[in-house]
Automatic annotation (TrEMBL):
Membrane topology: Multi-pass membrane protein
InterPro entries registered for this protein in UniProt: Carn_acyl_trans (IPR000542), CAT-like_dom_sf (IPR023213), Cho/carn_acyl_trans (IPR039551), Cho/carn_acyl_trans_2 (IPR042231), CPT_N (IPR032476)
Subcellular location per the Swiss-Prot or TrEMBL entry: Membrane
Protein name per Swiss-Prot or TrEMBL: Carnitine O-palmitoyltransferase 1, brain isoform isoform X2
Length: 835
């Protein structure tokens, strides 16, 4: 239920001014690429424009192109129609029409005279058409009745999906109301839904009570404020409730009645698109390949299979063959974010960006050693097979031609502040429009890196850290950050994904990435020599080299962008470590929520790292509602702080600490359930702040809320398609998740993923410029904190972690047995813990 990576992170990085006064614009000779293509075109046309030898292939190609185009249009129209009438189906209309005809044959009139009136209103074409008019009248009546039934089903299902009592209940102790609700949802949900089938039936996100929101907010900040500051904040809150809250709340309720979602469009615009900071580390996150294995060491082969698998996913997406995500097997989540996975680019603007999405794209843009290529993904027969794509990528790798001056570092402009890049892009669009459109109009971006990456047996810790850094920031000029995502293929065949955040959240790209890894490895597979299966196509034309021929006047803009990007990249401190002492199975045996377990343990680790508590951001999804995105779970609670203090107090017994830990977990679960059911704090306060800015109202309380810094930003990466991976028979084929940058210059970004039963992988980031943070130091504290918490639930394992030496054990233990791989002789147990 936890949402996307780093959602809601405060943009950081250098200001636009630090990158210079702006790009120097000049003429670009990018049209030379078009001239070269024209020069290579066959010149055998006769003076009258006809060529007998070419006419038959041309006509055949035109015919096939038209048929494919119409087939796509008809397929999309049919899928949209099925989505619009779901949970009904066209067969239900046919059944209704047949029932009306049968009743008419038995001299019964189910329409109570309406069909006769419809028939009378139809034009009279003679007596011989009397029966046809009757059939047409019956069809019109059946269609109207069927439309009314479909509308009724939509309303009924929307009302059913608005019930959230099930979230607050344990599956083992469901109330009668929830059981009745489940039965009704089964009845009204229909069969064989497509990806977007439930969109018309999803409820809108509710606007919480402003009094409840302010109360919850004050409760959340109490642990991190001194008494004097808290009293001052309470005074500001009371003034806000008395003077401004009612007016701002009224505008929000008005928007909630009119718009699909009262907060999501503002969240996308003001948090992402209006940010002028660099996308690098501020609005991107990464996802890793398999942790322990690489299916093939051949870079071109891995790229061929991965690109083919991604395009297969897009094909299924276009045909709506991807099943919607259902909680409890029946509660659908919103699928709106899937629409912009492919063919999408974030276009920079002077004041705000906009997201440009194409209905289709039949090529990918590729970057290798500073050179750009256009690789077609389809032939006359459809999608290119993996071996043909491998052939194209190998041609790029073997191409000895160098990058033209400054072209090698051109992509650094996408890492510049957005207004700087917008000005430079204006020059590019004027002088090299076709080349720019080839890159921005691609299905996605592919970067063929020249360096290896991934887990190394010689230096496992350092290699994983370098792998994460390469995916998050790269070298500053080897990613086109504007694209919805960049597929990164390293020289040793390792994969990775860099995702731009504005268009969607992590569960969407994560769903695609799971399908890609499973498909390219287990279904497409590789030949014994490491190549993609199949044979090369000698008739396949080579990839098209994209020529920018950049003018000298734009060189300064590129140099400034590259300098700023390298500064951002060099400032990132990334640390990745797999925690294998125990995992989800042990936590479940303790009858605890796995996510809450980690969140409370993170509070203990962070306190030991910094010696103080801080506001903690955990991203949770709100996709129970139409166009929902994320909400914040404020994990630093009074209950969590009480537990941490008890753990640091040697006078507290194990049973006391265990009881406080369960209270902290229960509190976190309460906050998480409130967040996903639309009763969170932060999105409501954010929307109230936006309304106050529109109305020109100054609210010291909302200004205080808006200025908060999240020194600990966290997120769990959800695993959504476990059926694609056999973690028991193939335990090495597990993804190591992904990560994001910290939200605050003096803070941490922490993400984690549960893979299998006994492995948790953590991704930690911070900034080297901060003297208060150290990613490796926090990683050590997280490991020790997890071991200390686990020892609370062990029988007879008092000295399992050194943090418990000297602590009294007042009972024999009421937890579960020792987790797999956890023993007192482990290296972590020999390390003293402390604040």
């Amino acid at each position: 239920m936890v949402g996307g990576l780093g959602a809601g992170r405060s943009p950081g990085g250098p200001s636009a001014q630090s990158w210079g006064s702006g790009p120097r614009v000049a003429r670009d000779s990018g049209a030379m690429a078009e001239a070269r293509q024209a020069a290579g075109f066959p010149s055998s046309l006769s003076p009258d424009g006809a060529d007998v030898l070419l006419s038959a292939p041309v006509l055949r190609d035109i015919c096939l192109s038209g048929l494919r185009s119409w087939q796509r249009h008809l397929s999309r129209f049919w899928n949209d129609f099925l989505t619009g009438v779901f949970p009904a189906s066209p067969l239900s209309w046919l059944f209704l029409f047949g029932a009306i005809q049968l009743a008419w044959f038995l001299q019964l009139d189910p329409s109570l005279g309406l069909m006769e009136k419809i028939k009378e209103s139809l034009p009279d074409c003679g007596g011989q058409h009397h029966r046809l008019r009757g059939l047409l009248a019956a069809a019109l009546f059946a269609s109207c009745l069927w439309g009314a039934l479909v509308f009724t089903l939509h309303v009924a299902l929307r009302l059913l999906l608005s019930y959230h009592g099930w979230i607050l209940e344990s599956p083992r102790a469901m109330s009668s109301a929830t059981k009745t609700w489940l039965a009704l949802v089964r009845i009204f949900s229909g069969r064989h839904p497509g990806l977007f089938s439930y969109q018309r039936s999803l409820p809108r996100q509710p606007v919480p009570s402003v009094q409840d929101t302010v109360r919850k907010y004050l409760e959340s900040v109490r642990p991190v404020l001194c008494d004097e500051d808290f009293r001052g904040l309470c005074g500001l809150a009371q003034d806000f409730l008395r003077l401004q809250a009612a007016l701002l709340q009224w505008h929000l309720r008005l928007k909630s009645w009119w718009a699909s979602n009262y907060v999501s469009d503002w969240w996308e615009e003001f948090v992402y698109l209006r940010s002028r900071n660099s996308l690098m580390v501020n609005s991107n996150y990464y996802m890793m390949d398999f942790l322990y294995v690489t299916p093939t060491p051949l870079q071109a082969a891995r790229a061929g299979n991965a690109v083919h698998a991604l395009l297969l996913y897009r094909h299924r997406l276009n045909r709506q063959e991807i099943l919607p995500t259902l909680l409890m097997g029946m509660r659908p989540l919103c699928s709106a974010q899937y629409e912009k996975i492919f063919n999408t680019t974030r276009i920079p603007g002077i004041q705000k960006d906009h997201i440009h999405h194409l209905s289709d794209s039949r090529h990918v843009a590729v970057l290798h050693r500073g050179r750009f290529f256009r690789v077609g993904t389809h032939s006359q027969g459809g999608l290119l097979p993996p071996r043909a794509l491998e052939q194209q990528f190998q041609r790029i790798l073997d191409d000895p031609s160098p990058a033209s001056p400054q072209e090698e570092h051109l992509a650094a402009l996408t890492a510049a502040p957005r207004d700087v890049w917008a000005q430079a892009r204006g020059a590019l669009k004027t002088q090299a429009e076709a080349t720019l459109e080839a890159v921005e109009g691609a299905a996605f971006f592919v970067s063929l890196d020249c360096e290896p990456a991934g887990l190394s047996k010689e230096t496992p810790a350092a290699s994983l850290d370098a792998y994460a850094h390469a995916l998050l920031a790269g070298r500053g000029h080897d990613r086109w950050l504007d694209k919805s995502f960049t597929l990164i293929v390293f020289s040793n065949g390792k994969l990775g994904l860099s995702v731009e955040h504005s268009w969607a959240d992590c569960p969407i790209s994560g769903h695609m990435w799971e399908f890609t890894l499973a498909t390219e490895c287990f279904q497409l597979g590789y030949a014994a020599d490491g190549h993609c299966k199949g044979d090369p196509d000698p008739m396949l034309p080579p990839p098209q080299r994209l020529h920018w021929d950049l003018p000298e006047k734009i060189h300064r803009s590129i140099s400034l962008a590259l300098s700023g990007a390298r500064t951002l990249s060099g400032n990132m401190d990334c640390h990745v470590f797999p925690f294998s002492h125990f995992g989800k199975s042990f936590i479940k045996h303790c009858h605890l929520s796995s996510d809450s377990f980690i969140q409370v343990a993170l509070q203990l680790a962070h306190f030991r790292d910094r010696g103080q508590f801080c506001l903690t951001y955990e991203s949770a999804m709100t996709r129970l509602f139409l166009e929902g995105r994320t909400e914040t779970v404020r994990s630093c609670t009074r209950e969590a702080c009480s537990f941490v203090r008890a753990m640091e107090d040697k006078e507290k017994t194990v049973s006391q600490c265990r009881a406080l830990f369960r209270l902290a977990v229960d509190k976190h679960q309460t906050l998480l359930k409130a967040a996903i059911s639309g009763q969170g704090v932060d999105r409501h306060l954010f929307a109230l702040y936006i309304v106050s800015q529109f109305l020109g109202l100054q609210s010291p309380f909302l200004a205080q809320v808006h200025s908060e810094q999240w020194q600990l930003a966290t997120s769990q990466i959800p695993v959504q398609q476990l059926h694609l991976f056999d973690v028991h028979n193939f335990p090495d084929y597990v993804s190591s998740g992904g990560g994001f940058a910290p939200a605050d210059d003096n803070g941490y970004g922490v993400s984690y993923i549960f893979m299998g039963d006994d492995l948790i992988t953590f991704h930690i980031s911070s900034k080297k410029s901060s003297t208060k943070t150290d990613s490796h130091r926090l990683g050590q504290h997280i490991e020790e904190a997890l071991l200390d918490v686990a020892s609370l639930f062990q029988k007879g394992q008092r000295s399992l972690a050194c943090g418990f030496r000297g602590r009294s054990e007042d009972d024999s233990g009421t937890g579960c047995g020792p987790p797999p791989g956890l023993h007192s002789g482990s290296p972590a147990a020999a390390t003293p813990t402390g604040c």
